[in-house]
Design goal:
The complex is a heterodimer of chains A (about 350) and B (about 160). With about 350 residues, chain A is an alpha+beta fold. Chain A is built from 13 helices and twelve strands. Chain A has helices spanning about 10-20, 35-40, 75-80, 80-85, 90-95, 100-105, 110-115, 120-125, 165-170, 190, 275-280, 285-295, 310-325; strands at about 5-10, 25-30, 45-50, 60, 65-70, 175-180, 185-190, 210-215, 225-230, 240-250, 255-265, 270. In chain B, about 30% of the residues lie in helices and about 15% in strands. Chain B contains five helices and five strands; from the N terminus they run E-E-H-E-E-E-H-H-H-H. In chain B, helix 2 packs across helix 5. Chain B is globular and about 45 Å long. Classes of the chains: A alpha+beta (about 350), B alpha+beta (about 160).
Chain lengths: ~350, ~160
């Protein structure tokens, strides 16, 4: 790890002021990803601005009936928060499917949004990686790419976003509130993470001098018909091969609204609103769900070791939609997939 | 641990197992390295140093975390409990006794992390069933494979708490 300066931010304005004057600085909160990347020499900030003590650790109801989650709320505190468990159980479930309890006790909501890919080539500085070092090439495309993307890939990058939380936030259509030197702005979750394109070095549309202050959830929480189904090599404490978050609104035996997002398959949580719209008005059936899965995966592309993920994703989508329709969400403790 | 130098050292106060320490630290120092190399508390183990194995688990303000991915400078003022702080007045913590009773280790390298993690687990109160214990202890790897006995030991300690 290279040497760096360390300073503590007194408030949000001070944090923004400090990063504006040190462009190669980074904010640090939980540190579960950043410290690891610094130890691997993947990240080399000259200064760390500690925002972990800022008063951004509250979960509050908004006037519009939603929920505002401070950027420094710990992943474990959010997962077990009574309002989240009751009104947004898909978010609670996704959080508990990620990492370990120790890491969830450290990791912040803002940091989870900014998690970097776990692509092995990104981590290994002896190999080329366009994300780590622009225009150096991609080791994964013709390499060991079992964990890599099948949707939204580019010739430059096939990395996946590793977050579970963000997949649920995509279904909930969360909004990310940020503060920078130009003031405050809100970014829709769908626009927060980027596809790699020709600039895979940019994971998100957050500017380098902006600080995430909170995440806002709209009122609609899909508390009855939801699931978070994560398929991975180990039953716990492993990144997703494929994960699917679902929120359904049913009217008797008719789908009134369907939302589902995929994790582990793309550079961002993957939603296809056109497919979701086609489920509207249909009865929940395996046939309808299979059709939806086929549509989402129509343009999926495998790279050899990860080609199996296309079939796996299809089955996981169908199973997850069925779980949500039956109101039998995936348990994150016994792991039996029903 | 990197050598501290006068220009970049940061003053940090840590209360470890009830004893307060004021330390001048290189900002790069992990809490794990500070515990082991500066405070000679070598019970906490370094396994992977990447937050993947749980051997370095300690409690900060009562909550379990991995000390390898914690920069000590970010924990100024914190209360840290390591495996050395679990026993009270010469009496083993119920978890320590349960691990002995149920032969919940072989080589013992992961045990300090398992014990601190299990202490955090019991304090959280979220695990009731063996499935839930297994899930919420999944951040602690035991390559000897003592898992069944670890779960049994934790169940015993849970009944006593």
């Amino acid at each position: 790890m290279i040497n760096f300066q360390y300073s503590r931010a007194n408030d949000v304005a001070d944090a923004v002021r400090q990063i504006t004057t040190s462009p190669s600085a980074k904010f640090i909160a939980g540190g579960t990803n950043l410290i690891d990347l610094m130890r691997m020499d993947v990240e080399r900030p000259t200064k760390l601005i500690d925002v972990s003590k800022l008063p951004l650790d509250q979960v509050e109801e908004t006037a519009g009936g939603g929920l505002r989650i401070g950027a420094l709320v710990r992943n474990s505190d959010l997962a077990y928060h009574p309002l989240v468990q009751r009104r947004y159980p898909v978010l609670s479930s996704a959080l508990l499917a990620g990492a370990s309890q120790q890491l969830r006790n450290m990791a912040s909501v803002g940091g989870n949004l900014l998690q970097r890919t776990r692509c092995a080539y990104f981590y290994d500085i002896a190999t080329p990686c366009n994300k780590r070092q622009p225009r150096s090439g991609c080791g994964a495309i013709a390499g060991i790419n079992r964990m890599n993307a099948i949707l939204g890939t580019s010739d430059a990058c096939i990395a996946v976003n590793p977050s579970d939380m963000c997949v649920a936030l995509a279904v909930l259509e969360a909004r990310v509130n940020v503060t920078g030197p130009r003031g405050e702005r809100a970014i829709a979750l769908a626009d927060f993470h980027r596809l790699p394109g020709v600039t895979p070095e940019r994971d998100t549309n957050l500017e380098a001098d902006e600080l995430i202050t909170s995440v806002e959830l709209p009122p609609q929480g899909f508390a009855t018909n939801y699931t978070y189904l994560k398929i991975r090599d180990r039953l716990s404490y492993a990144f997703a091969l494929v994960a699917v978050a679902v929120g359904l609104e049913l009217d008797g035996n008719t789908i009134k609204e369907a939302r589902f997002a995929l994790g582990g398959v793309a550079h961002k949580p993957w939603r296809n609103t056109q497919t979701e719209a086609q489920l509207k008005g249909q009865p929940p059936s395996e046939a309808a769900f299979t059709q939806a899965a086929d549509l989402v995966l129509r343009d999926a592309k495998g790279f050899g070791y990860n080609t199996f993920k296309i079939d796996l994703a299809r089955r996981t989508i169908v199973r997850a939609l069925s779980q949500a329709a039956r109101a039998t969400p995936q348990s994150q403790s016994d792991k039996k997939i029903l | 641990m990197p050598e501290a130098n006068a220009t970049s050292s940061v003053s940090v106060t840590l209360t470890v197992n009830g004893t307060s320490h004021v330390l001048m630290l290189d900002p790069r120092s992990s809490l794990l390295d500070v515990l082991r190399d500066r405070l000679d508390l070598t019970g906490t183990k370094k396994g992977c140093d990447h937050g993947q194995c749980g051997a370095c688990t300690v409690l900060i303000d009562g909550r379990r975390i991995v000390s390898c991915l914690t920069l000590a400078v970010t924990k100024d003022g914190a209360r840290v409990t390591t495996v050395e702080g679990l026993a009270k007045n010469g009496t083993l913590h119920p978890l320590q006794q349960a691990f002995i009773d149920h032969d919940a280790f072989q080589c013992g390298y992961c045990t300090p992390g398992q014990l601190c993690s299990a202490a955090g687990l019991i304090a959280e109160g979220k695990a009731k069933t063996p499935d839930e214990i297994r899930e919420l202890m999944s951040g602690n790897i035991c390559r000897c494979g003592a898992y069944p006995n670890i779960v049994t030991a934790i169940q015993q300690a849970m009944r006593q708490s």
